[in-house]
Specification:
There is one protein chain. With 375 residues, the chain is α+β, with helices and mostly antiparallel strands. The chain has four domains: 77 residues, Alpha-Beta Plaits; 77 residues; 58 residues, HIV-1 Nucleocapsid Protein; 58 residues. It contains ten helices and 14 strands. The strands form four sheets. It has a five-stranded antiparallel sheet with strand order 1-8-9-6-13, covered by helices on one side. Helix 9 crosses helix 10. The C terminus is likely disordered.
């Protein structure tokens, strides 16, 4: 009898635990969320890409495209575009043609690039759209062991980080063959996009759990139309190629058997989109090598930031700089130059980066002048 009572109590405890867990999760759930929306990428509604004020580099590109799909930006008069940008847009360093459908407007100041993005009047009058590439303003990492029944929206609500702004949450899905068709099933891996291009945070908080953030390695892009790498079929303008026999038709209309398939890339006996293709394997390796994001802890270990572990050496270095009147004058000149330029143009950011860049230019100019005087 005692055993039956204990068993009954254990069953009641397990049932109550499940109910309590479900009730605690209900505060994050959305009753209006349909099963189809559950695993759609969830992106912050009020977010738009912008260059941070301390954005690294001297060039900040904004891509423009035609708002009229029938008139590509590359078919317009280049001189007319150049005159329009010169007259109405400030801070442009130069223009560059990316392809027939896209141009790059390069600014040397991140604030000027952001101002151009907000210039809706200019965009409307010239029938263009403007955007910043994600690669220079965002970075993506992944977390693992996330319960697969949680929706992307729920994950976003329970995620938190003290160092970065989270702008997108996307569950990694896996194709599973069921009969003659393939269905998508959720994995326990979630990709998180942060509004930063410098480094990934070491970890994020999922409710009370501290979860490490790992680098995200995107899949290889291969076009199912022309079979080339680097783009997708919906953007492809090339001629169609068969993935089985390499001829100019769809694989659906091919009479060659899979046993006699020829890869267009390596000429091997497999279809062109096969994962066994040595060319594709090499592309995957190259893709992994490109993705080497640094966490904060790794950044601090970087050789670009040598540590001054010896206090004596640090003090000697400070004494050396302070005693060098010429170096002090150069530093002072750089600070005054940046502040003056800011007051005149009202578009120069006064921070350590702009002062350091100005100091480098002054030292370089002084070095050239010294060499010329010696000659």
């Amino acid at each position: 009898m005692g055993g039956k009572k204990r068993k009954k109590k254990e069953q009641e405890y397990e049932t109550n635990s499940v109910i309590q867990s479900s009730d605690s999760d209900s505060e994050y759930s959305d009753a209006s969320e349909s099963p189809l929306d559950k695993y759609k990428p969830y992106r912050v509604a009020d977010y738009s890409r912008r260059y941070p004020e301390d954005s690294p580099g001297h060039e900040h590109v904004v891509f423009i495209a035609s708002s009229d799909e029938n008139v590509p930006i590359g078919s317009r008069d280049m001189m007319y575009l150049s005159n329009s940008f010169t007259r109405f847009v400030k801070g442009i360093k130069y223009l560059k043609k990316v392809n027939k459908y896209r141009m790059g407007v390069v600014f040397d100041n991140p604030n000027m690039a952001n101002s151009f993005l907000d210039n809706a009047t200019f965009h409307r009058e010239h029938r263009i759209t403007a955007s910043i590439p994600a690669a220079v303003t965002e970075i993506t990492g992944v977390i693992t062991n996330v319960p697969s029944d949680l929706s992307n929206k729920t994950i976003f609500k329970v995620l938190s980080t003290t160092t970065k702004k989270i702008i997108c949450v996307r569950r990694i899905m896996r194709k599973v063959k069921e009969g003659e068709s393939y269905n998508l099933q959720p994995t326990q891996t979630v990709a998180i996009t942060f509004a930063s291009c410098a480094s990934l945070p070491d970890y994020v908080y999922l409710k009370m759990w501290r979860v490490p953030v790992l680098p995200y390695i995107p899949p290889i892009k291969q076009c199912f139309r022309c079979l080339r790498y680097g783009h997708l079929a919906k953007f492809c303008k090339n001629a169609e190629r068969c993935s089985i026999c390499t001829e100019g038709h769809s694989f659906k209309n091919c009479n060659v058997s899979l046993a006699n398939a020829v890869c267009i890339h390596c000429k091997g006996n497999h279809i062109a989109i096969s994962g066994t293709c040595p060319v594709k394997k090499q592309k995957i390796i190259e893709n992994k090598n490109k993705i080497i994001p640094q966490s904060y802890s790794e950044t601090l270990k970087n050789n670009a930031f040598p540590s001054l572990t010896n206090p004596k050496n640090s003090q000697e270095f400070q004494k050396l700089v302070l005693s060098d009147t010429k170096m002090l004058s150069f530093i002072t000149e750089a600070i005054i130059k940046v502040i003056t330029h800011n007051k005149i143009n009202n578009n120069t950011i006064v921070n350590t980066k702009t002062i350091a860049d100005t100091l480098k230019d002054i030292l370089k100019t002084n070095s050239v002048c010294s060499e010329n005087s010696q000659v």
